[in-house]
Every structure is written in structure tokens, then in C-alpha cells.
Design brief:
The strands form 3 sheets. Strands 4, 6, 9, 10 and 12 form a 5-stranded antiparallel sheet that branches. Strands 5-11-7-8 form a 4-stranded antiparallel sheet, with no helix packed on it. The chain is mostly beta strands. It has strands spanning 6-17, 28-41, 47-48, 50-58, 63-67, 85-93, 101-104, 121-124, 129-133, 140-141, 149-154, 161-170. The protein contains no helices and 12 strands. The two termini are 16 Å apart. The protein is 0% helix and 48% strand. It has one domain: Jelly Rolls, CATH 2.60.120.10.
Amino acid sequence: MGLQNTQLSVAASGLLVGSPAGAGATPQMPLDYRVALGLAGGTGLGQADRLWTATRTLNASANEDLDLNGTALTDGLGVAVALARVKGLIVAAAASNTNNVIVGGAASNGFVSWVSSATDKVTVRPGGVLALFCTDATGYAVTGATADLLRIANSGAGTSVTYDIVVIGSSA
């Protein structure tokens, strides 16, 4: 069967309101930005066939390296999620966290095709979300045993952090 009818989307809406100029109308600028990307089942352009999602907790000052190409991650159907390409990555830090969730910067064999170098990291503050989407045929390459570890870390001591993660990709 595989992954079917997957939608990746980001939306922002709001209203910027200025100060009235004398007796004139109050200036306003609406914001309604939406981008939605669809993925069909498969491994090519606009396609994905693998999904892994979890809610995880890291102890104070701890980290974990998620092997995106190995057999350690299994999907909701019990199938190993061995990725060759990542098409969507979402990391959402729980609002109740005290510390930040750090994404990236694995000590070795890091999954780095989505950043410039192996030392690059993104800080996801409590209640924050990191979302990375790419629907082209290349996606973000995962190379087994050499570039397949996505590090997730707790930024500090004292308290644990909880985060949700969604990884959508293709096996080829």
C-alpha cells in the first residue's frame, strides 16, 4: 500500500493595525499566507513512501541520534523506516518544556543535507516548531552509515524536554 495522499502545509494569518492619522481611517494590512505541498505514494518527484512519527522525551542535558536509514525506527505498522530521502521534517517542542530542543549537530555520520555543515543546529524553543518541506525528487539525501543520524538534544540541565517528530520521506 504505502504512503498515500500526504499533505504538507504551513499557514500564517493576522492583521497588522496602525495608528489612525488624525481623523482618517485606521490603516490595516491583512496577512493570509498559505503554502501546501502534496505528496503521492512513491519515491520520485512529488512522492513519498515512508512515514515515522513519535512523541519523545529527553532527560536533562541528554541527546539522541535518530538513525534515518537503519532499522531502529519503525512506523505505526511495524515496518522499518529506512530513508534515502527526507521530504518533510517537523519537530515541535512541548510548550511545557523549560529547556530548548536542539535539532542537528550529530557528532559523526550526521544527516546534514538540510543544513550547510555537520555542526549546524536549529534551536526549537518551548512551544516552537521547526518545519522543513521539499517535494522534489531529490529531497534531502540520507546516506546509510555515513550521513543518516539526526541528532535531537535537550539544551540544558535540570529538566527533561518533550518533543513531537514527524519524518516523511522515500526509500529510494
